[in-house]
Structures are given as C-alpha cells and as structure tokens.
Amino acid sequence: MILRAGYFLKRALRNMRQSPVLSLASIGTVAVALALLAFFAIAVLNVQQLTASWNENLAIVAYLDDVPEEKIIKGWIKDVESYPEVAKVNFISRKAAFARFAERLGDDADLIEGLGADVLPASLEISLADDWHSESALATVVERLRKDHRFDDLQYGQGWLEKLEAFLLLLRVSGSALGGFLVFAALVIVANTIKLTLYARQDELEAMAMVGGTSLFIKLPYLVEGALQGLLGGVTALGLSFLVFQVILQKSLGSLLLITGIDTIHFLPPVWQGLLVAGGGLIGLLGSLFALRKFVRFGSS
Amino acid sequence: MIQLFNVSKAYQRDQNALSDVTLKVEKGEFVYLTGPSGAGKSTLLKLLYCAERPTRGQILVNGRNITRFGPARIPYLRRNLGIIFQDFKLLKRRTIFENVAFPLEIQGYKRFEISKKVYQALKNVGLEHRLSHHPLQLSGGEQQRVAVARALVVDPLILLADEPTGNLDPEVTLDIMELFKNANARGTTIIMATHDRGLIRQFPRRIVSLDAGSLAMDDLPLFKGTADMAGQF
Question: Has residue A300 been placed in a domain?
C-alpha cells in the first residue's frame, strides 16, 4: 500500500513537472486566496483580543468634584458594593490619580512637573462581578447610579465597545465574503487546471482504461496532484502572510492597537496555521474532484 | 471462450453497425475478422472489450455475460485481454519500458517482476534496445511492436487486434504474425481484424467475414479458395 502511495505521488509530481505553468497558476491562486483570508484572520484575532480585554475590564468611573469625608465615602462604597452586579469599588484620591498618571507617562513624566498633585479629580472605580460582564449589566448599573444623585459624572466604555464590536462584525463579514469568493475562485481555477491537463491527456487516459486501469487508479494521481497543488498553495499563503505580518501588519496594526492598550500583535496560532495549509489541500482536492467527476467516464458508452 | 448471441449494435436509430450476429470462438482459436471498411469489424471488437454495449443480444466471455458488466467490472475484464489498436494508443509521455510496464503496474506486480517481464516482452518484439526511448522517437512499425509487447506482456487469455498490420511494411507484418502465432501456441485465443488477403493466405486460419454489419461467412480455410474469397474484401 505504501509502495502504491509512492507510485501515485510520483505520477502526480511528474504530471506537475510536465505542465509547470498550469500548476503554478493553481498554486498561486490558492496562495493568494488563502493569504487574504489569513490577513483578515490576523486582524479579526487581534481586534477580538482587544474586545475581550475591554470586556474583562468593564468598569464605571464616577468622578467626584468635591471629595467628601472618608466616612461618607466609605458609606457610598458600601452602598454601591451592595449592587448585585458590582464586585468591588475602589476610591482613588486626587493624589493617587496623579501618581498613577505620572507612572503611566513613564519617561515623559517630566511633562507634568510643576503641576499640583490635586489637578486630577478623585474618583470611585466600580468593577463588575465576573457573572455580570455584559453591556446590559453595565447599562443597568449606570442607570441606577444616575438615579442616585450623588454621582453625576460617570464614565464608561460602552459606546467604544459597541463601535469596536460593530467593527469586528464588519471585519468578519467582509473577510468571510471576500475569502469565500476567493476560495471559490481558487476552486474553479484548480478544477480548470486539472481539466486542461485531462484534455491534453485524453488519449493517455483512454489507453490506461483500455489496458485495465480502474477509474480510481486513473483518477488518483490527478486527485493527489490537486491536493499537492492546494497544499503548496496553503504553505505559500502561510509564508506570504507571515512575511506581510512581519513587514507591514505588525507595525500598522500594532500602532493602531497599541493606543488601545494591547501591547503585542499576534500571528495566527499554530492550529490556524495548520488549518490554512490543510484548507489549501482541501481546495485542491475538491477542485480536482470537480474536474474528474465530469471527465473520466470511459468505461463503456 | 467467446460467444455472441444475436448481437446487434446501432449507433443511430435504424442504422445497424452490427445486425443479429451469432458467433462462437473456442479457447485457443485464431480467428480472422474480415470485411470491407464499415462492415462492423471494429464495432465487434469494441463490444468484446466493452468500449461499446450491444443494442441487442448477449455476449459471453469466458462464461461470463459481459453485457451485464457495470463500469466497475470492465477494467478487470480488460486485464485478461490484450488489445492492439490500429493507432497503437501508446502513452506518448512515457518511455517504451513504462508503456509496456503499465498493464503490469495496474495489476500490482512487484517492481522486479515488472522489469523482468517487460524486458522479455520487448526482447520478443526485438525492441529491448529501445527501452528508454519515447513512442514518437520510434517508427510506425516499431510503435506497433511496442503495442504488441504491451498486449502480450500480461499473457492474456484473449488477444483482440484491430488491423494491427494495417500500416506496416511486409517484413514487420511477418514479424508480428510470428508473435501472434507464438502467443496462440501458448494458448491465447486471438481475434484479428484485417483485410489483408495476402496475410490470410500466408497464415490460413478460421475466417469470420462481416458485410454491412451481418455475418457473411464463417469458415475454416479447408481449401485455398476460402482464403481467396475472404481476401476479396
């Protein structure tokens, strides 16, 4: 069986060598289609990472114009912490807010040198409980806080989150649509490449059938050829997308997402890389199956 | 070995390529199939290797009704047949060795067996020195000899030859007839379509003659006149 597999592989490779232009066209189309899909996947993955981290840090900040006495603040904290959706409420004093800001500025901390430590407002940072990490819970808590007239100045990231999720959806839909179209195009091109090869070898196929070649025996090298072209296309797509990731995507996507607090931009995880290459193989295999389905019918008329 | 019962074949309505042919060929027989162009010789051979199906009638090969064979069984029937075509049908992209080896590869022979058998088959047709050439580098006669080697390398039960000497010079024709005679002597049943009257006269065997799709004559060459009659076509 292993010997047979070697035989079919050898014949598929020989077929590819005999029509290099057609083979390269197939490999190239699969590679371009899958590379574009990979770019979208990289973008979606990283934006998704951003929304996940934002979701995780869903919090409401209630700024306090006048800082009351500690005792009163403790009472407020106790009140808000009694909400079922709220996990914890932290009081950030003006001083603490300034220190945190200076820390975030890092090397640029000298920019705020000379400013008074009370330039930033004090606040209560309200984080949601694990079971309540949702936009609706956030909205409920905000609504309740608004009704409580002690807290006027409320800040929360709901608008941003909605926009980001809409962007993510757009990215997914457009990526799937474009990717789907390109994969279909790749499928048609691979099928046509194999079909052209079959037309060129019609006499040969007939001769094979006449000396007792079974349909599978005759078809298999072409199926292997299609799968090989697809796999090579998948590997090329992986290489291409990694190259583009290193040279362009990491910088452009990185600078876009760094503003938002994401510090590392990820390439496709290993499983996705495997899926990309396997997907190429599948496109090639299906393409040649389509071509052969109509073509090889030389048993008897 | 081969039996045809009232076999008809029409490619178009009301236009029979074969009409009501009944024929029996015994194991080990050598039969000439003669007749003018369009008489139905090639059609009859095609029916025997299942490239066509009869419109009516039944065909038995080696006791099995091949008219009922589905596409999956046909390749296995062909593995017991050696088929020689007038246009050779060689694999142009493959070497002579690979062409002759192909039927053995299909049948799953081991590599060393294939090498041995192919070399012997090519030696029998005098082309062992052309192993690594491609068909188009060979003359027509040499290509036909390769086709003969490919047909005989599997030791077929039946050899079907469609005008195998049609385009060959007399010397090569004699060589090929010798190969057929040897195969026949080893037990291979041979049906050979030809209209070469000289050949039939030189190697007298049973003659089955077709005319306009019907059986016109089926006779053993008991006297020279029969061969001459067949040669009229």
Answer: no
